[in-house]
Write a structure and sequence with these properties.
The chain is α/β, with parallel strands linked by helices. Helices cover about 45% and strands about 15% of the residues. Strands 2-1-3-4 form a four-stranded parallel β-sheet, with helices on both faces. Helix 1 runs parallel beside helix 13 and helix 3 runs parallel beside helix 4. It starts with a helix and ends with a helix. It binds 1,3-dihydroxyacetonephosphate (13P) and iron/sulfur cluster. The site of 1,3-dihydroxyacetonephosphate has 12 residues, from helix 3. Belongs to the quinolinate synthase family. Type 2 subfamily.
Length: about 300
């Protein structure tokens, strides 16, 4: 009953404010299935944000996603329902760190995961997501790139490409916790298990998986019907959301929660639309350069 009251209020507020809600795949099912207008991985949300015609975008996701939406559609009001929805990867690197990397490796292009602040994007040549990292790197036509800040994503991509990758020591606090031993134990306990791992997991975890891809890649794999019993080595809401869409698939549920994503709740979204808070803006001194890095990625 508490959910339905918030859901009804949010649907009415969306009309009143001429707002759309973009929700990442790690949002809880009542957000993902009941109030979101658009759902997807980081890449899909960036593309959709660019196309929004409504006046207001509510980002049911984390701060870097809201900043990306603002950069790509600057005339819109972008709201992030919780100021605490950050990201351990975004927190792992600053613009000054990127300048130091450039000084250490002169002339080597900087490929930056979208899980970063606009300041860091502004110091970069091009952005990537987990869904397009290899294509972005190979689009540059160089032998060597700096790839920041996710060390594990960079190491996982390095296994798929001939391009040499210089890494940074950032990690996703959700995916770094998985271990190869647990995956072997789950396989032993659940015969026929198909294991899908996000590329933010350590390489030794990805090596134990049958498939690795972005959250959208995992959704497509499950929708393809190739597996009757799956383990998604990623954030917990991913399985919850897919289980609603695919009752025929059995989801084995060990997972890790992202505390940042979980700051977004129905009541936070409702309050955000009632009070038009918290509005996300990007410093004009970095906005144009940060936008260019994202637009270069979207053009690949
Ligand atoms: P994708 O949805 O792009 O795979 O990103 C995962 C993630 O950790 C987002 O914070
Ligand atoms: Fe950041 Fe990891 Fe949470 Fe995604 S799941 S927002 S990468 S901490």
């Amino acid at each position: 009953p508490a959910f339905s009251e918030d859901i009804a209020a949010i649907l009415a507020l969306k009309e009143k404010r001429n707002a759309v809600i973009l929700a990442h795949n790690y949002q809880t099912p009542e957000i993902f299935h009941c109030v979101a207008d658009v759902t997807g991985d980081s890449l899909a949300l960036a593309r959709k944000a660019q196309e929004v015609e409504a006046d207001v975008i509510v980002m049911a996701g984390v701060a870097f996603m809201a900043e990306t939406a603002k950069l790509l559609n600057p005339s819109k009001t972008v709201l992030l329902p919780s100021v605490e929805a950050g990201c351990s990867l975004a927190d792992s690197i600053t613009a000054a760190d990127v300048r130091l990397m450039r000084a250490r490796y002169p002339g080597v292009p900087v490929v930056t995961y979208v899980n970063t602040s606009a300041d860091v994007k502004a110091e970069s040549d091009i952005c990537c997501t987990s869904g397009n990292a290899r294509q972005v790197i190979e689009s540059l036509g160089v032998d060597e790139v700096i790839m920041i800040p996710d060390e594990f994503l960079a190491q996982n991509v390095a296994k798929e490409t001939g391009v040499k990758i210089i890494t940074w020591k950032g990690h996703c606090e959700v995916h770094e916790r998985f271990t190869p031993e647990e995956i072997r134990q789950w396989r032993a306990a659940w015969p026929g298990l198909v294991v899908l791992a996000h590329p933010e997991c350590p390489p030794e975890v990805v090596a134990e998986a049958d498939f690795s891809g972005s959250t959208a890649g995992m959704s497509e794999f499950v929708a393809s019907g190739k597996a009757g019993r799956v383990l998604l080595v990623t954030e917990c809401s991913m399985s919850d959301n897919l289980a609603v869409e695919h009752p025929e698939v059995e989801f084995v549920r060990p997972c890790n929660l992202c505390p940042h994503m979980k700051h977004i709740t129905l009541s936070a979204i409702r309050k955000s639309l009632e009070q038009m808070e918290v509005e996300v803006t990007v410093d004009p001194s970095v906005a144009d350069r940060a936008r260019l890095s994202i637009e270069r990625m979207l053009a690949v």
